[in-house]
Amino acid sequence: MRAYREFMEMQREERRQQEELFREQEAVQQEERRLKRSAQIEQDKRRREQLKEKEAKENDTRMRRIKAEKLKDENARRELRAYIQRVKSFRLSTLAGRLRRTEAQLLKDLAAVAQDEDIMSNGHSDAEGSVVVPQIVLATNVTIMPRTPGPPTTPCLSSRSSRPQLLILRDPASDQHIVLDESKLAAFAEVVQTSGRVDKKELSAASERIFAQ
Known about the structure:
Shape: rod-shaped
Number of strands: 5
Largest sheet: 3 strands, mixed
Order of helices and strands: HEEEEEHH
Low-confidence stretches: 123-164, 194-198
């Protein structure tokens, strides 16, 4: 009986030791799992922080690149606008100078043609036998008074001059010139003497009829 009790006591003691060993092992495993979870949590935290830092750096780099590209585009547009303005100014100044030179040359050519053809054919000699050159007048706006009862008259651009008259009409819109000598002034007065001012259509039709003569 005593031996049985000793055996049972030994069995209980062995089970108690095994349970204690199991509890110790379980505690060690739990501590290991806790440490592992803590390490994993810390590692995840560090990884998230690194990702945030990396994302912040990428955002900052992207914003700096966008600002640089925007500034570059603004500078390019500003330089392009300045270049276009310079080109426009240069072209306008060149065109204005060319137009001035063309107008001056045209008037010079018209005067030369008139002197070579119309003026010499319509010139007359004075008392000394020299040829009197007709007076050349450039008119941009020609006003002819309406016809009044009386003897027919022709436009007289200078009553104080005894020289024959040569009228050069210029249309500012089309920059066209019409040369009229004394032989054509009367016909010009007949066809454009309406309301007192020369109309462009009437002037064109009159010039065609006059030069067709």
